[in-house]
Amino acid sequence: MKVCIACGMPMEKKSDFPQGDEQKEYCVYCARPDGTMRSFEEAKAGMTKFIMESQGFDESAAEKIAVSSMKKLPAWKDEFSKE
Amino acid sequence: MKSKRQLQKESTRQKIIDTAYRIYATEGFSASTARIANEAGVSHGTVFAHFKSLNELLECIIGEFQISLAAEFHDMGESSASVSDFLDAHLKVLIAHEEFYLRLITERSLLPEEVQYVYADNQSTIAHHFNLLLSREIKNGIVKEVPVHMLFNTWLGMIHYYLWNKDFFSPDEPVLARYAGDLKHTFISLITK
Ligand SMILES: [Zn+2]
Question: How far apart are CA B98 and CA B101, in angstroms?
Fold first, then answer.
């Protein structure tokens, strides 16, 4: 089973892939409307929002959690090695 | 096919994980890696040949816990599951890992920050599945119109309160198995219309 390189979500169904394209390495939530993968900043904002909405956490805490989980994902390797 | 050497390596790694899990559950997160190595019957260096750092070992153990939750939710079949099914699945995994989970919630501040974020991120995944299901039941007119994250936090609040006060609620046996039915039925009757 594929796992999204940008958010870690398991991709099981065709509908988990952007535009149903199972060749893609990232999931439907990590894709922009045109099918390309969203940027680091877009992904960070999206994951922060996801954590805030699912658990009601404070924004700054949610962002730290999001960044920490992004460090472990292959899509953002270069972003963190720049530091 | 895997070579004998590879299999050996994997079994050593698994032994370290299982031992660390058991020691953390029974003794807490202040247990040293030397203690874990000793108990697993490997040298201290072997632990770090398999895990780059203590953080990696801790993250791996918390990750295993997360995998068992994901597997349980997967088996449940999300689209057809009821709130009751979901709470049962959540409780089943927590019951199986009660001691470890209790350490996790009571000693979280002792863990390295990065490891705490892994825990929080895992809780987000559970919360997300929970929220999807609850949103559907709110739409169906079954569950009251309350922000879904508050429903999740209320559910966790009940569980964590019983765990935190295990010595009062159930000093001699696991607390969650004993009160699982009460917790679930009370929560459901509070949230349904
Ligand atoms: Zn994704």
Answer: 5
